[in-house]
Amino acid sequence: MNNFRLTSFLTSNIDIDKNNLESLVSQCKTKFVKKGEYLLKEGEKCKHSFFVEHGLLRQYALDDKGKEHILQFAPENWIVTDRESVYFDQPSAYYIQALENTNTILFEESLILHLSKQDPLFLEFNNKLLHNHIRQLQRRITLLISATAEERYLDFVRLYPDLLLRVPQWQIASYLGITAESLCRVRKEIATKS
Amino acid sequence: MKTREVELVVGPREPHYVGDGFRVHNFIPSAYRLDMQRMNPVIMMDYNSKFNFPPSVRPKGVGVHPHRGFETVTIAYKGRIEHHDSSGGGGIIGEGDVQWMTAAGGVLHKEFHESEWSKKGGEFQMVQLWINLPAKDKMSKPKYQSIANDQINRFKLADDKGEIEIIAGEYQGIKGSATTFTPLHLFNAKLKEGGLATFSFPADYNTALLVIEGNVVVNAENKVPTDNFVLMANDGETFTVSADEDSIVLILSGEPIDEPIAAHGPFVMNTRAEIAQAFEDFNLGKFGFLED
């Protein structure tokens, strides 16, 4: 089985036997996207949740002026999707783009629903993932409305320890909701302090 | 003295770009049988074979990035490179020069085509090596050795058949210009047509050569064309390199550092915990600050 990250992600989170695991993984498609290519564009219907085996994705929205606002980065072992589009059948407001050559595993909505009905353990696992996701979003909202740029930056490097080396500064600034100049100043101040 | 045989001849792989200014073939650690331990203490070799960069007002290169746990050695054969680092250091590496940067405990640096050179463009050719440091020196203070070509000690071959530039180590009793943390020999053998040089290193020293220019023959029987890498076996000490035409060959030989290697991106340490620490220190600004 070559979907090594996915299988270890599943077995470390759910008490699943080998047959069920193989059956689950065999029902998922994989997709390779080159750096710069898109898995989703604004206006399209998002059909999958994307698990990153290897590489790096970002999810962003464009405002009226054409400026990008990054909602999420998804390095290895992360899941990214547009839930409004997948689960509420709306055209997407987001782009999902590869920042590096990326191998993803595609989860279809129907498979998630089917497994949730069939297997209480999977339902529990999926609930846990959702709670974790909501927890992160709550934390992100709190930081965006109340924290200083430095606090947001420090939270970012705690959450994504190696992204500073993989993502251009302006994209990190976009994720943090600050200007690239502010991010540069914050990093300089932190370096001077230490 | 026993002859050291050729173990493997490796052609240049598909090039990739480091930043937008270095179009490199990686030999170590990505080529088959050339992982970090095989050529230890030389744990990385990127080779920008001759490539013509068009003129560019904005110098091409690679922006601010960190290093920890090893040394970078940049040898410029064609073109000029400008570099800056978080300790305030910087300089220009011109044709034939060598820059030996001991990143050790951590530096941020950036490397670009030198701005005047960039405006004209032209042929660019260079090698960058990463030399591992022993555990006890990995967190030592960063330092530089900038070695201009005219400062490199040389051994002249008989009958005006070329010369050996001794960047580090020792050849025929002449010491290299750079100091190293562990025993390491690094030479540019500049052989004229018909020139022959003999090299001898302890059998356990990991040894290789890269043909920068021309065509050579190793041990009188193995023809090696330009841009090819030769891994020498650890079965003997002595080998010869002879030139069919005017040639330049980079010769590397080092005593292996018998320690585990944990590597991730620009950090090369001994354990995973030390790698995690390197990321944390980098994220928290402990490598200093360098403007983009």
The CATH class name of the largest domain in chain A reads Mainly Beta
Identify the overall geometry of chain A.
Answer: globular
**How many individual helices of chain A?**
8
What is the overall number of helices of chain B? 2
Q: Provide the low-confidence segments of chain B as ranges.
A: none
Categorize the overall geometry of chain B.
Answer: globular
Sheet with most strands of chain B = 7 strands, antiparallel
Q: Architecture of the largest domain in chain A in CATH?
A: Sandwich
Secondary structure: number of strands of chain B = 26
- Enumerate the strands of the largest sheet of chain A in spatial order, edge to edge or round the barrel: 1-8-3-6
What structural category arises from helix and sheet content of chain B? mainly beta
The run of helices and strands of chain B is EEEEEEEEEEHEEEEEEEEEEEEEEEEH
Order of helices and strands of chain A: HHEEEEEEHEEHHHHH
Q: Give the proportion of residues in helices of chain B.
A: under 10%
Mean pLDDT score of chain A: 92
Strand content of chain A: 15-25%
Helical residue percent of chain A?
A: 40-55%
Secondary structure topology:
The complex is a heterodimer of chains A (about 190) and B (about 290).
Chain A: H1 4-11, H2 18-26, E1 29-33, E2 38-40, E3 48-54, E4 57-62, E5 68-74, E6 79-80, H3 83-88, E7 95-98, E8 102-108, H4 109-118, H5 120-146, H6 149-159, H7 169-176, H8 180-193
Antiparallel strand pairs in A: 1-8, 2-7, 3-6, 3-8, 4-5, 4-7
Helix pairs in contact in A: 4-5, 7-8
Chain B: E1 6-10, E2 16-18, E3 22-28, E4 42-53, E5 61-67, E6 70-78, E7 81-85, E8 90-93, E9 98-102, E10 107-113, H1 115-120, E11 122-132, E12 143-147, E13 153-156, E14 162-168, E15 170-171, E16 174-175, E17 184-191, E18 196-200, E19 206-213, E20 216-218, E21 222-224, E22 229-232, E23 238-243, E24 247-254, E25 262-264, E26 267-269, H2 272-283
Antiparallel strand pairs in B: 1-22, 2-3, 3-4, 4-11, 5-10, 6-9, 6-11, 7-8, 7-10, 9-12, 13-14, 14-17, 15-16, 17-24, 18-23, 19-22, 19-24, 20-21, 20-23, 25-26
